[in-house]
Amino acid sequence: MNVQVWTYIFVGLTFALYLSIAWWSRVRDTKGFYVAGRGVPAAANGMATAADWMSAASFISMAGLISTMGFAGGVYLMGWTGGFVLLSLLLAPYLRKFGHYTVPDFVGDRYDSRFARIIAVLCALFVSFTYVAGQMRGVGVVFSRFLEVDVTVGVVIGMVIVFIYATLGGMKGITWTQVAQYWVLITAFLIPAIAISIKLTGNPMPQAGLGSDLANQSVSLLSKLDGLNRELGFGPYTEPFVGRWDKVNVFFVALALMVGTAGLPHVIVRFYTVKTPRSARWSGFWALFFIAGLYLTAPAVAGFARYYMLESLNGTTREELPQWFNSWETTGLVLWYDNGDGKIHYSGDDRNEIFRAGTLSPAELSTLARDHQLWLDSGHSSGADARPILKAHGLSGPDRDIIVLATPEMAELSNWIIAFVAAGGLAAALSTASGLLLVISSSVAHDLYYKVLNPSASEQKRLLIGRATIGVAVIVAGLFGIYPPAFVGQVVAFAFGLAAASFFPVIVLGIFWKRVSMIPAIAGMLGGIGLTGFYIVGVVFFGMEKWTLGLTANGIDPQGIGTVGMFLNFLITIVLTPFFPAPDQRIQDLVDKVREPEGWSPAVDIDSGPEH
């Protein structure tokens, strides 16, 4: 059977599984809808958390980033895994002991303020919609290639599936669906990695295969990659801190991803679903354990993909192009624009002709060049029909979002493996999208509607509002998938930066410094997310000059500006705190009780009292 038939089989079976689980675990009350009845076992919650967090960025985009960036791509591994350690040890048990439903719940009750709750809701929506854009983009990439349907159709199919199982089962349905999705995505990631490692190096462990000698050659894979990169004009694959990724930017991006992980609303809410604070800590351990399988393998997949790409493309003619290139060219995510000599020049010099644009006319290429601040060079063309060649500084090469999905085809693995990887990519994207949609729903229906607008709303009405909000959010998320603002990994990194700048300081200070009151906390959140959002939008979409802050000649990368926003948030809150009255004694007693270590007492569902 061909790849498309296998893809229909795997996608059909997995979607049927997800919908069956959703029907089995459907809920009829808000406790089940928002926190799965607080009855999820720690190990199962660890699997669900791993699937929720290992999004399309982890499955589809991260290995692509490492493949194209080399050593510098390790910043994503360090930031995302380090953040889970931070979350599990520093925040999760205390938030679970607090015992509410959402991050805005914590902010509103800890700072005893309706206004603080509203600001937290707006931050949660901003972060979640930014994050969900990357997931729907991943859904579109998978469907456009493997089911050979239009991206719009693929996104709509994903929207329908997520809407059904998110609205039926709420957090309970999402949790058990994510357990199934974890096993789909991790199996789909590991099987081709192991097969390729055996094929290239004879070693069945991809992690060891990355550092092993190539089969029938007396040179290691990494040494070969370094040599190929130098030969073709790219920077050495294993050399650290080259180009714009100097030490300062690596530090800023890694820290933004780390504290952003500890501040992500859809990850934090998973720790509200277990029975006790002790279970919350164990959930963090299990999540790290289950995440390790993919994260320890991603660098190997990246190295294998880079090797195949450099070996199979440079210097080939149209007739010699590998089949994987022809297959992906139809998606518009990779393009060969011939300069007239009939050969591909995939290199780091002026003759680079591999792009991620699609089949474009010269006028459209000119527009693309202008929009991305690139320039056109027609020096290699001749004749009346000469076409300009796009010189894409930093953007050349196939779209990074296709690397993991295309690697099994590059290695000429079996069709069923290629199709199974597609199912895994969909599982990764849909699992995270569902968690984000529930955060959006709970922020609007629970934190805004019930806690602020209509405290007397019945259980049935609150459920109705929650489900309706998911419907609206699915439509908005789908639009992001059809008109993506950037590639998956970049969009997700922006979301982490926004979470780092808004939620991390207010949660940490709220738990560990009972002197902090409403106004300093609100000012810190607004200052942090305001600066971060302004910088990202300005640099990425309006060509604003990057800030150096006297630290780096290359300017702070937008993916790392969340670190600056976080420090600003801390600074504003800490400086303003002495100028405002301390919280009342009830709030201070609450903070003390949440931090009590003795006995790991069960959840403290505290009455929030009057709000301002």
What can you tell me about this protein's structure?
With 612 residues, the protein is an all-alpha fold. The chain has 2 domains: 31-183 and 237-290 and 428-600, Sodium/glucose cotransporter (Up-down Bundle), CATH 1.20.1730; 335-397, no CATH class. The protein contains 23 helices and 4 strands. It has helices at residues 3-24, 30-35, 42-53, 56-69, 74-98, 103-110, 114-146, 151-201, 206-209, 221-231, 247-261, 265-268, 277-295, 298-313, 323-329, 362-371, 403-410, 415-453, 459-482, 488-512, 518-542, 561-576, 585-594, and strands at 335-336, 354-355, 375-377, 389-391. The strands form 2 sheets. Strands 1-2 form a two-stranded antiparallel ribbon. The chain has a two-stranded antiparallel sheet with strand order 3-4.
What layout of secondary structure does this protein have?
Blueprint: H1 3-24, H2 30-35, H3 42-53, H4 56-69, H5 74-98, H6 103-110, H7 114-146, H8 151-201, H9 206-209, H10 221-231, H11 247-261, H12 265-268, H13 277-295, H14 298-313, H15 323-329, E1 335-336, E2 354-355, H16 362-371, E3 375-377, E4 389-391, H17 403-410, H18 415-453, H19 459-482, H20 488-512, H21 518-542, H22 561-576, H23 585-594
Antiparallel strand pairs: 1-2, 3-4
Task: Provide a brief overview of the structure.
By secondary structure, the chain is mainly α.
Number of domains: 2
CATH architecture of the largest domain: Up-down Bundle
Classified in CATH, the superfamily of the largest domain is Sodium/glucose cotransporter
State the CATH topology of the largest domain.
Sodium/glucose cotransporter
Unreliable stretches covering 5 or more consecutive residues: 355-366, 368-396, 600-612
**Main β-sheet, in a few words?**
2 strands, antiparallel
Q: How big is the Rg?
A: 24 Å
The 3D shape can be described as globular
Strand content: under 5%
